[in-house]
Amino acid sequence: MCSASGVLRRYLVGVPDPRPIPIPASIDSSRVPEHIALVMDGNGRWAQQRGLPRTDGHSAGEEALVDAAYGALAVGVKHLTVYAFSTENWRRPLDEVRFLMGFNESLLRRRRDELNEVGVRITFSGRRDRRVPRSVLRNMDEAAELTKNNRVMTLNLAFNYGGRAEIIDAVKSLVEDGIPAHKITEKAIASRLYHPEIPDPDLVIRPSGEYRISNFLLWEIAYSELVFNDILWPDYRREDLYAAIEEYQGRQRRFGGVES
User: Fold this and answer.
1) Active site members
2) Mean pLDDT over all residues of the chain?
């Protein structure tokens, strides 16, 4: 049975949960994934099904993100990485890209104080190139600085992120550091990823009915458990997160070995 320690810890650090619900007793609190990665997918289809502009789907996805984050916080997840904007998303229509830049910037301004009060550290993974507006980068830096000392949970936003780009950037760093070929190891590459202090995801969740990784955390998910479902992201809630955790806890993780 899951203890209430995660819930109590959240209330002790400040703001109460906007939608407190019981954690399923079937979740083993000693086996909660330390790091969960989420692909926030299906916003555009959700809007189109309702005859709305695609951008309305992105706006509706904010509630899903906040509820999933509070659910992860309550159950005791230490790191939550969400796929906010990929290196491939620049190929979308210009109006949608502009909306996403502005929406992510305003999301940070609206939510960073609340997340700070509940002990969440906000970090970012991705390239800081000229395509990202300076105002967005500034808000990212302000959110990271405000929350840098928090330790209850890390919310890592993968923004202008691509798994291949991350590996390329790590290899470039090896070359720039003059590392000889015989000293290039997994550890050497891993130490040059965007956030080497964050452990690899135990669980990757992709809603929306798509069954692919889409260039997300390619290095880090080598031994992650994968859970897919058909829920479009704006409809995703912590109950769905808890169901994925239950499925994760029913699996055997052997990391290439066999059970004795």
Assistant:
1) 41, 89
2) 92
